[in-house]
Structure formats: C-alpha cells, structure tokens
Amino acid sequence: MENSSQVKLTASNVHDFIFDRTSELKAFDETKAGVKGLVDANITKVPRIFYSLSDDFEMASENHTIQLTIPVLDLNGFDRENPARKKDVVEKIRDASGTWGFFQVVNHGIPVNILDEMLEGVRRFYEQDFEVKKEWYTRDGSKTVVYNSNFDLFRAGSANWRDTTYCNMAPKTPTPDELPEACRDIMIEYSKQVKKLGSFLFELLSEALDLNADHLNNMGCSDGLAMLYHYYPACPEPELTLGASKHADYDFLTVLLQDNIGGLQVLYQNQWVDIPPVPGALVVNIGDLLQATFFSQHRVLANHAGPRVSVACFFTTGLMTSSKLYGPIKELLSEQNPPKYRETTVREYSLHYNAKGLGGTSALLDFRL
Ligand SMILES: O=C(O)CCC(=O)C(=O)O
Ligand SMILES: [Fe+2]
Where is the Fe2OG dioxygenase domain (predicted)? Predict the structure, then answer.
C-alpha cells in the first residue's frame, strides 16, 4: 500500500526535487572567489555542482593491472653535430608521441630557479588578498588576463575543483602593467623560455615525422603561446570530484609545469596512468591539432594534499583570426595512411572546443572524415 506521507513525483513537482543547478552555479560564480574561496570558508562537504558524473570515474586508477609510466627523455648533450645522439632522441620522441601522446623532458634548458619561481608566482597570485584578486575575475574572453573558476562552468556536466587564469603571451606579449603584479615578471620570463623550448620540440617532432626539421615551425605551430595557470585547492572529499575532467588539449602541443603534489593522469589503453612529478621535469603533450591517431586524453584528480599548482603553456598559432587551414600533413598521406580529419582553422577548432567544455566526448571526433 502506498505510504500517504510519501510525496509522489509528478510532472508538475519534479522540479522541486531536482536541485537548481543553474542557481547554484550562478551563486558560486558571483562570489568571484573560486574554489579557493570555498576552502577558505572552511567547507567540509563538496557542493553538488562539483560532483563528477559517474563516467568521469570509470576506470579508476585503483584498477591498474600493470604499473606503467610515461617516458622521461633527457635532452642533455643534445647536439646537432652529434647525429647518433640526435637520432636516439628523435626515435624516443616518435615512440612516446605515437603511443602515449605524452612524455616528460629533463635537462630541457630552463633553469630550475625559473621553474620554482613560476610555481611560486602562481601561488602568490591565488593566495593574495581577495579584494585585489577579484578584480581579475571575468568571463570576458577579450580581456588580456582571464581569471575564473571553470571556463565551461555553465556548460559542463560537472564543475572541476580548480581555479584558472588564462593569458596569451605570444605572438604579442602583454606589457608588465597589463599583468597581475603577483607574477608579472616571471610570466614574461618563463613564457620566453618555454617558447624557445617549444620551437626545439617542434624541430624534433618534425624529424620524428620524417619531415624537414623546420616543417612544424614553418607551419606556425610555435608562433602563439597561451599560458594557463591552475590552482587546485585541497579537497575535503576528493572521491566525489575531479581537479580536471577528462579532456585533450585544443592546441598543437602543451608544455606543462607541475608542482610536487601529483594527480595528473593520462588515459592509456583504457587505464588511467599517473604522470608523477619528476623534479625539474616538464610534461609535454601532443594536442588535438597535431593528433593523428591517438587522443592524448588526460585528467587531474582532486587531492587532500593540495593546494596543487600547475602551469600549462599551449602552443597554438599567432593567427587566431586567420583563415589558414590546418589538416592532414600532405607529405605524410598515402594510400595506407589516408586523411582522418577534415581541415579546420585554429579559430574554428578553439571555438568548437570551448563550446563543448571538458568532460564530454573529444572535440576532435567531430572533425573526423
Ligand atoms: O594541471 C595539470 O596538471 C593539467 C592541466 C591541463 O590539463 C590543462 O591545462 O589542459
Ligand atoms: Fe590539458
């Protein structure tokens, strides 16, 4: 018999039982304090807007059957006059890019004090006085510096446990007074160094693809550099949410600097594999626009141990408004290797990616031929 005190769900009252997600998202956004603001307010429970969808947690890291690690490549002693050494590095890059879409590099030429100061600068930015920081909070993508929590807050299935700041550093570098005082000098210095390293990596990647060394650089792959610095506060219930949902990057190549907390994982043959912090190393990952057959999908776990900080430098193109088409590299096509994706402009691809947000199916799939 039906219990009369039990309320029955009907078409007219169903909305009372489904939490008003949009209002909660809006309220959170209006605080301009991000996830860090929640933690500073000493919350002990993760708000529902951050609950991950179940398929985000599919294939949890506990299910690992074999212990795998992505390759760590030593760029030390790399010398154009030393063909044997060069051949070795190029082969390793070819291997790592083809199987993982990810590798780490050590002895990459960026001094460790610059890496440390970059991470320190990111901490200074997020941990500064809230009244100063909130002036940078915006969802207006035309601003030089865009700080907010979850660029896809109102589009994604679940919000991520992190705050992010976005800034284009090349081809046009902002002047220091356009950047946050907490980290302006190091943003300029670090991105200069990453740009140099990026051109070098594109040379190696070109050779790994059996192209002329300058092919990818000539295509404009290293002209544009977007810097994203993230802050993942310690999470009271890391089993309920993610620092970053599963995604691939929308660029040609990403150079990522992470601190020593950990949590970054790459999806490899249906398993989540940890990308452990290696002192002094930078993580390199192939973005969608350089992707041929593999998706280098990755995510970041939320963590009791935070805050965790990281800096992702996205190599795009200097020509965000250009109609230049990127697609299968003609030199690499053959009957056995037909084109898989249609051509697109960097602008079209970024807009499509942005509209989809993180956590869903890969944006690249929508460009399959
Ligand atoms: O914080 C990290 O380790 C990863 C960040 C990331 O995946 C991104 O910015 O696209
Ligand atoms: Fe990413």
Answer: 223-318
